[in-house]
Amino acid sequence: MITNTELEHKGNLFPGKIVSFSQNVDKLNFTTENGVILQLTIIRGSVIRFRYATDNNFENDFSYAISEDGARGYSKLEVEEKDTHYEVITARIQLHIDKNNLKTTIFDLEGNVICKDDWGFHWEQSYEYGGNIVKMSKAAPQGECYYGLGDKPMHLNLKGKRIENWATDQYAFGKDQDPLYKSVPFYIGMYEERAYGIFFDNTFRTFFDFCNERRNVTSFWAQGGEMNYYFFYGPNMQNVITRYTDLTGKPELPPLWALGYHQCKWSYYPESKVKEVTSKFRELQIPCDAIYLDIDYMEGFRCFTWSKEYFPEPKRMVEELAEDGFKTVVIIDPGIKIDDDYWVYQEAMEKDYFCKRADGPYMRGKVWPGECFFPDFTNPKVREWWSELFKEIIAEIGVKGVWNDMNEPAVMEVPGKTFPNDVRHNYDGNPCSHRKAHNIYGTQMARATYEGVKKFAYPKRPFIITRSAYSGAQRYTSSWTGDNVATWEHLWIANIQAQRMSMSGMSFTGSDIGGFAEHPTGELYARWIQLGVFHPFCRTHSSGDHGNQEPWTFGDEVVDVTRKFVELRYQLLPYLYTMFWEYAEEGIPMLKPLVLYDQNDPQTHYRTDEFIFGNQILVCPVQEPNSKGRRMYIPRGNWYNYWTREYVKGGMEQWVDAELDIIPLFVKEGAIIPKYPIQQYVGEKKIDQLKLEVYYKLGNKEESKVYEDAQDGYDYAKGRFSLRSFSFTGKENEAIIQHHKTGSFITEYETIKIEFVGLPFKIKEVEIDNVKVSLDSIQYNAKENTLVVPSDYAELHIVG
Ligand code: MIG
Hints:
By secondary structure, the chain is of the alpha+beta class. It has 13 helices and 51 strands.
């Protein structure tokens, strides 16, 4: 046992005995003899904020991450003073605070330890910066698992790893490389089937150590700021994530087209090249909704300008693309070229909106346009100004989405690849150095961009994508995983990153399909698109230096595979949109790693490859060349192989066939999967019929939902949406599908085509809303096991 005195020798300081306690409604303050204050805020019965001050002094309380819309309030709060500790009891947890040393232990109501301080809060004074290095260490029982933390390209279970959060432009990053572009200081711990979460809301450079340094200890620390974290009790992992997302915010629904397939390259230019690519998609009938313009569309890389040579009439081009169903998305970087004749530069200079060094000069750095200055997006006035800059691009030219890159912020040819630490930031009226603002810079840029696009796209919905992000960025933007590489290992990484981002409250994420750096083989591209269509954001992108990466550059077989999977994504749009609605509404992660799907099955704790897309579709990519299939773990429960329709029992590892045109895909029994007809882009066709694939299950009810609305705009917020709930009940010789619709949106289609999969009997009789109907009148097709019912039926009863 190391004593406090020994540790103090190493520079660590510890809280002493508690000398006073006070309560102000939801805030409990415990003060120690040496001037440490622990302030607990009871946010909800299962969400507690822990905030520690040293020298009796809290900083101004300000966070970019916390959303104002989150649920607050608790039903019970009792505080009792005992001999050795204070006891705090809510409706969900109990918390002990040791009077001797301020250490805390959190229990569930049955008395199981959920999270316990090891050394607890301690700190080191930082002579160089004047603040503290704030630290927290927790006991880590053997067998505890850890998940979360954003975009880390390593095993999903973080046990044994040390992690660093410092947003970094990491071109061609590798497996296990850290830090990367994002910093999401939120993790989920799970021990004996009970999960909890910790969000360390500190934007300085932070570290997390999961039993790497000491086998039985998990710790986290920051190079400045406060020890300020939120504890979320589960015990279900999904509840931990929804509570975290509730606190840090949920996205609005994107326009449906943003869930279509997107094509990108660095760069498509001139206009004729853009048109050649978009026409080829239509010619080959590979659905596609968006085309991206990378930095070369600008005049000398000046943001908010267009190259006269390559894009002489952007408005006309964007309109013509729109006529063909393509939405144009353009890149906007933070670096503003130093150029007296450039209006954006002039305005920012006049208004004094660029970041400055501590001693006065502007923060000057080289990026694509050459020498640049950088707006201080942590200044609310700068964000307001920036948002106005989008007027022309969005309102006049008709661009539909904006892509924010280089916002770590990235600077070329300098050590650390970013701003020096001394750069000053406004931080919404809490002036600070870059040490504190670095990790939030990208999010504030994306936020300002979102506000601009939203304002000028109104009454349509905005679409933003960012590379850098901090917790809470999901309120404004989607994201991609940065500059990956065209290798099989990166296919594994992409799968991990998309799942991890989903668990970290940022579901709307995807990778550069096929890899950004280098060039994939056709086989790798095919395997990647098969996975990519199951990621919430789905875009092919490449650096273009090593050849083209449009699907047709890999030959006919790959074109066919691409078409097959992109078509499947478009058919599944109502399913995907419903997943998004559940994410936007309740914070439910769109992708669920198996551990999140079934945490009580220990087999899932170290799985990485398989995941659940939404609630009912199991996906497992093939990640090796020359494969004819793979072994995978099918989680507990019963499933149907989507391709062969074979019924499979889960709870074991098994071989699954998967030639190049197949990705292992399973549907949960009892699921009702909605499909739209194939379209080349969202809105191409009137949806004249909804299809439901009904996967028969014997026994208990299974619930499925379909959310629909106008696919863009905000009418849904006024109740003009359609939410259909279906429940399936299967018996040996009959089945019932109940259907209930809420919301005032009238869907275009008048009929629903139902296809039964795995039905163990031949349909002989059908009743709709308790009225017997003839099989002819519902277009019953015995071979395909399909029938057509009115879209407003309430109960369908089939009997064998
Ligand atoms: O220094 O805009 O990650 O997607 O194509 C490279 C050019 C800058 C990095 C992005 C990438 C983009 C590229 N950008």
